[in-house]
Structure formats: structure tokens, C-alpha cells
Specification:
The complex is a heterodimer of chains A (293) and B (241). Chain A is of the alpha/beta class. Chain A has 9 helices and 12 strands. Chain A has one domain: Divalent-metal-dependent TIM barrel enzymes (TIM Barrel), CATH 3.20.20.150. By secondary structure, chain B is mainly alpha-helical. The chains are: A alpha/beta (293), B mainly alpha (241).
Chain lengths: 293, 241
């Protein structure tokens, strides 16, 4: 198999996209992806579909896929470092759903999607343990999923207020990507959460990060809260993007020479409320704009 | 630590915690304890998940009794050993909620079939045979009917049930059967059938199972046919080699 920096050339440029997950539009006023596409195709070049296989796809995701529009498959239910998570039933369901979505690639937070085994009531999302020993199992899982699906699998840095382990998150994911020979999805809002939690400046750790492996960026709104004097960020996917996130996104878009897509995560907001956010994100990436639109 | 503040405090404390290596504990101690408390509903969501599977148990014991599981060593073992919360809760529960609790635990097990390590003929892991105090099934159905379609909400707002689970010496034999979509059928069965399936457990040589069937009342010349029928009905499954 060619190495990732060769393989990345075959990945399509998807441009700006929007994310969804099962039932996201049940909330009043939530974003209708197809309506966004109709009104502003430049903002909805693709749909990133969050998938928990026990739930499957909702009507929005099915309608988008049925129209033959571009997608990516964002997993919400696998601890990549746990071989027992790759059970035949789960893999079969992933293949079936991928067959319907025909995604450009798989991606998803490379952390803990569940405590204990994958089971009802176990679902959560925590960042990986940022230590040397965690790199190998996570990389092995990425490779296993890539081999099982025939699709590139981009690990995303998960959100969190508490991070365990002494490595910097960017160093950790750099090592994971190198070992798995894969691309990366950088969530700018999640990274801002990490930098804040560790007392770092937004761009700490940028030098030395393999930006040429970054294929996708996420930009999302957040809210700062205070718990007993600890300032932390809720990743609320609202329309107010924090300055640290903008700073990271701006620099990431500049450095990521193989960038193929940017997702604006705003699935529970009305279209009119999010259009200014899309415009500002589009301005981060003027040179390589939303070709898929 | 996210779910149990007392355990988080123990990790930061000086007492022994044999389940954690020194380095693991050191890494966990480095986390700002306030960062573990930013989601005040995390434990409530976990309790909610158990209430959905153990509504009658919660009605009999009260929601705080369910919540207590998350501060137990059994819960920590479940997490460390990648277990199932619902199944571990059932084990931890034991007889606290009497027959209704045991029935709900059996449902949780049947919904999560895992092939055992035994050989020969085994009870289908989607089937849970059990013998509980007489009246337990009726008690469970009464409790669930009272709780309505949204048990967790009812439990959050209602007082604990005054009803006590049946405790008498007489037993009623029951079978729980879970379908592939998680749907469950629950009903009475004959005592010999339930005992035979319990005996089969994770797997027994056919000869042992035949002998047990005869001991439980089958005619010797019918025992093989009986076992074949149970296999055909999906109550018993053949295991290799």
C-alpha cells in the first residue's frame, strides 16, 4: 500500500460541510442539511454523518445519501484501542451503513466512546490517555478499521475538560498518525479546550505537528463555564466560536496543505443563524475553497 | 472517577488501591479534581440507563439504592474488566429486590448473549431460565404497569412502592427469551424444563443432559427426542468441538 501522503492525493476535496447525527433535527429550529444545500450549496458541500450503528441512519442522512450527495462517516461508537470492539456484527453494520452513505472516508473521535464494553447506557466520550503506551493500540485500531472497510480512517482529537497523561495532545496524535500511517481530523474547538485545560496558548505544539496529514478540520461554537474557579469550555456546537478556536482554525487552515474539508458543527441551529459562521469559516480557506459545491 | 466522587477522592488520597498501578494513580492524581465534576449529570444519566432496565427493582428499593451501585466495588470491577453495567448491577443486586429483581437481571443477561466456554449442549444464551418466589412475575408486572411507559420519570417523581417482593418458599419457574432486536418474552414454564436448562448452563455432554432429563421425569426412551426438540426450538444450542 502506498503511504498516506501518496494516498491523500486520491481523496476528494469536499469543501465546507455540515454535520449531523441521529435525530439531530428533532430540536425545534435545527438545521435541515438539504435545505442548507439548496440555499447555500457552498456551505453544504458534504454531510458528515455521525453514526452509532445501533441507531443507524435517520431520515435526513438517508435523504442526503439517496440524493447521491457527498458524505463522510463519523463513528460514534468504537474505542479504537480495544480489539473486542471490532466484533463481526459491528463491522458488518458499519459496512452496510457505509454502503448506503458511500462516504469519502471514515473519521471520528479517537477516544473512549464507552466505558466497560459497548452496551446500552455505557456511551460517553472521553479523550484518550495521553501516554506513550496508548499510541500503539490506537494506531492498530485505526489500521484494523481501514483494512476492514477499505476506507481511510481519520482520527479526531476528542473534547474534554479532564485530560489524563503527560503528552501534549498534538504530539500524541502526531505519533498515532505516523504509526498508523493515516491522516488526521483536527477539531479546532476540541484543541482549544485542551490548550485551555493545560494552560497553554492556542498554538502551543503546532511546530512539529504533521500538518500535511490533516485532511479535515472541525470548527464549532463553545461556551466558557466556571466550576469552582476552573474555567472550562462546553463544546455546545452553537454559533459563538471562541477566539482561541478561531486562532487555531486560522493557522490550521494555513498550514494544512492537504486539507480536503472543513465541517462547521452547528447541527442544532437555524440556517439563518449559522450562515455568518459559514462565511467566516470559508474565508479561512480562500485559496482552496469549496470545490465540491 | 467521573461517576464516583468518593472514588476520585480515594485515588487522590493515601490509602491503598491495589487495582491501580503506581504510574496509573500518579497520572490520575495529576488531573484537576474540578475537571471531573464539570458534567453534573453524568452519574444521573448512568442511573437512568439502569432504571430503564430495572424499573421494578428501582420501584421496590428506591432510586438511591440504584444510585449506590455506582459507588460500589462491583461497578469499578465492571469498568476495569470491560463488563456490562446492567449485568454487573444484577449480580450486585443479588436478592435485594427479590424475584422481580432477579427477573430483571435475567432479562439483562438474555439481552446480552455471550457464548460460554462449555461443550456439548448449552442453554441458548438468549434464554434465561430461573426459579423465583411464587408471585414474583405478577409482582413485576404490577410494578411495571404502575410505572407506565416512562418509568424513569415516574420513579423520579414518585414515592417508593410500599409493596414488598414475594419471599415465600414456593417457587415459580420462568423463562426469559430475548430476540435479536432486544425484544423480550417472559412467561412461566414447566419446572423440569427450567431445571434442565439451568443444568445445561454453559454446556454439558449430551449424555449428562440425557441422564438429567430422565432424572427430572422424562422416559428414558424419549430423552434423546426431547433434547432434539429443545435444540429445534432454540432453547438448547450445540457447542463444539
Amino acid at each position: 500500500m502506498p503511504d498516506f501522503l501518496d494516498r491523500v492525493r486520491a481523496l476528494p476535496r469536499l469543501g465546507l460541510g455540515v454535520s449531523t447525527e441521529y435525530g439531530a433535527r428533532r430540536q425545534d429550529g435545527a438545521l435541515d442539511p438539504l435545505e442548507l444545500r439548496r440555499r447555500r450549496p457552498d456551505c453544504a458541500g458534504f454531510l458528515e454523518v455521525g453514526v452509532e450503528v445501533v441507531k443507524g441512519l435517520d431520515d435526513d442522512a438517508r435523504a442526503w445519501a439517496a440524493a447521491g450527495l457527498p458524505t463522510t462517516y463519523h463513528f460514534l461508537d468504537i474505542n479504537l484501542d480495544e480489539p473486542e470492539d471490532f466484533d463481526p456484527e459491528w463491522l458488518a453494520a458499519v459496512r452496510t451503513i457505509a454502503g448506503e452513505l458511500r462516504p469519502a472516508w471514515l473519521c471520528g473521535d479517537a477516544g473512549l466512546w464507552h466505558l466497560g464494553r459497548r452496551d446500552r447506557g455505557h456511551m460517553l466520550l472521553l479523550p484518550p490517555i495521553l501516554v506513550e503506551e496508548a499510541i500503539g493500540p490506537l494506531a492498530d485500531g485505526l489500521q484494523a478499521l481501514r483494512e476492514a472497510t477499505g476506507l481511510e480512517v481519520l482520527p479526531e482529537n476528542p473534547p474534554g475538560a479532564a485530560f489524563v497523561g503527560d503528552m501534549h495532545l498534538l504530539d500524541f496524535f502526531a505519533r498515532v498518525a505516523e504509526r498508523a500511517d493515516t491522516g488526521l481530523l483536527l477539531d479546532c474547538a476540541h484543541l482549544a479546550m485542551f490548550q485551555r485545560a493545560r494552560g497553554h496558548a492556542p498554538r502551543t505544539g503546532f511546530d512539529g505537528f504533521p500538518w500535511d496529514r490533516v485532511v479535515e478540520l472541525h470548527v464549532a461554537g463553545g461556551r466558557v463555564h466556571d466550576t469552582a474557579g476552573l474555567a472550562w469550555v462546553e463544546d455546545d456546537h452553537g454559533t459563538e466560536v471562541l477566539p482561541d478556536t478561531w486562532d487555531i482554525a486560522n493557522e490550521a487552515a494555513r498550514r494544512a496543505v492537504n486539507l480536503r474539508s472543513i465541517v462547521v458543527e452547528c447541527e442544532r441551529n437555524p440556517i439563518d443563524a449559522v450562515l455568518p459562521l459559514f462565511d467566516r469559516v470559508a474565508a479561512l480557506w480562500p485559496a482552496r475553497g469549496p470545490e465540491a459545491a | 472517577m467521573h461517576l464516583d466522587p468518593a472514588y476520585a477522592a480515594a485515588v487522590r488520597g493515601a490509602g491503598p488501591l491495589p487495582e491501580l498501578a503506581e504510574r496509573e494513580r500518579s497520572l490520575l492524581r495529576a488531573v484537576d479534581p474540578r475537571a471531573l465534576t464539570v458534567d453534573p449529570y453524568r452519574r444521573a444519566r448512568a442511573v437512568h440507563a439502569l432504571l430503564e432496565e430495572y424499573p421494578a427493582t428501582a420501584a421496590l428499593l428506591g432510586v438511591p439504592a440504584v444510585d449506590a451501585f455506582f459507588s460500589s466495588a462491583a461497578f469499578r470491577t465492571c469498568v476495569f474488566e470491560h463488563g456490562s453495567m446492567a449485568m454487573s448491577f444484577g449480580t450486585w443486586l443479588g436478592g435485594q429486590a427479590g424475584g422481580p429483581g432477579r427477573i430483571e437481571a435475567a432479562i439483562a443477561h438474555a439481552r446480552r448473549p455471550r457464548p460460554g466456554a462449555g461443550e456439548g449442549l448449552a442453554c441458548n444464551p438468549c434464554v434465561a431460565p430461573l426459579r423465583v418466589p411464587k408471585g414474583s412475575l405478577a409482582c413485576l408486572e404490577r410494578m411495571r404497569a404502575r410505572l407506565g411507559p416512562d418509568p424513569a420519570t415516574t420513579l423520579a417523581t414518585a414515592r417508593s412502592a410500599r409493596e414488598k417482593p414475594p419471599r415465600g418458599p414456593d417457587r415459580e419457574p420462568l423463562l426469559v427469551e430475548a430476540g435479536p432486536g432486544g425484544e423480550v418474552s417472559l412467561g412461566t414454564a414447566s419446572e423440569p424444563l427450567v431445571r434442565l436448562l439451568q443444568f445445561a448452563g454453559d454446556g454439558r455432554p449430551r449424555a449428562e443432559l440425557t441422564a438429567e432429563a430422565v432424572r427430572l421425569g422424562a422416559e428414558p426412551h424419549e430423552a434423546d427426542e426431547l433434547l432434539a426438540g429443545l435444540v429445534a426450538d432454540g432453547l438448547l444450542v450445540a457447542r463444539g468441538p
